[in-house]
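re: that chain from earlier
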Amino acid sequence: MGACLGVCSLLSCVSCLCGSAPCLLCGCCPSAKNSTVSRLLFTFFLFLGTLVSIIMIIPGVEKELHKLPGFCEGSGSVLGVQTHVDCSSFLGHKAVYRMGFAMAAFFFLFALLMVCVRSSKDPRAAVQNGFWFFKFLVLVGITVGAFYIPDGAFTSVWFYFGVVGSFLFILIQLVLLIDFAHSWSQLWLHNAGESNAKGWYAALCIITFIFYATSIAAIVLLYIYYTKPEGCTEGKVLISINLILCFIISAVSILPKIQDAQPHSGLLQASLITLYTIYVTWSALANVPTQTCNPTLLVRNSTSSATATQPLTTWWDAPSIVGLIIFILCTLFISVRSSDHPQVNKLMLTEESAAGAGGEAAAVESGLHRAYDNEQDGVSYNYTFFHLCLLLAALYIMMTLTNWYRPDESLRVLTSPWTAVWVKICSSWAGLLLYLWTLVAPLVLPNRDFS
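^ sequence. v structure.
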């Protein structure tokens, strides 16, 4: 009898994996929106692929990848020219690129399948919100196939796809960061106004001071470690430009006209944007290909043995770890909530609707811990745009884990190109301009509602 019950329980789990999201909530989980559960599960797939990429780039595992049949064969082929180069130290780099390609292809496939889905009544919505076991099999199949892609020009071409995708994802990060900063400031000012407690204002001042103090300390360290009294002109110029721009946006945020148009605007948002800009500047300087101007430059030789002057290094450095943490937070942010600001919802194509309120009430009344359908009258987020965001996130994490490095023409050294430096710096400038626009837009376009 117990065996029969166990088999029935197993079959129930299998049916949930092949069915829709409502089955997948355990008894200890609260009832949740079907749209939220689906986004979290797709994000889990992305995190799973990221974890596999991290494992493959660990030095001990990287050395074992040569056992994969054909994985290192033809690795010396660049634009049709066959060379004979030992790729044993590049296996982790190759594996991460193929894992990134598999995840990008997976999300691109679903972005195409979900074009113009308007509600859960569309048959394709069932594919979006269910059949998770089969989706996992599709991801595994694409991943296995990706490892059989011949090198040729794959690495060089896919590098530029990664650069473009990473630039776009950094812009998405900046939009989310600006939205988070505005929401944070509004919440604390609202609490301070309701309770008449000065503690909220004190907390705002303390957090703002910490952000600015950290930014100033980071700028000083950047000047010390990434510049020299003679030379390193590029680093000096880039740090100085971003320092000046951060000072400008901080000053603009507290101008009387800006305060009249946006009472919730202040130094908290500016300090957070400044801190992120300094991080992006640090990340860019960590990719400067000049050893004298970049003490954190990683050098990977085409042999797995360490040289007398330059030991074999791992991919992990501080900017990559911080980038990985920001990546996790941003993807979770995209998955679990919509913005408090309608303008951001329109930009990110996310807007939680009241549809499905009856499903929530029914779930609460029945006492079942299940995901209820909240998209019968309209989707709460654009399925295609969501998958494109995850696609860009996959490309971003691929570039982050490989430090934006690529093999040189001789395939003997993985180098850091200036392309990575300028992409990151330009993204920081774009973010500062975007934040500046959120400050001055109500004055430039007084007839539009920016509340």
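The mean pLDDT is 75.
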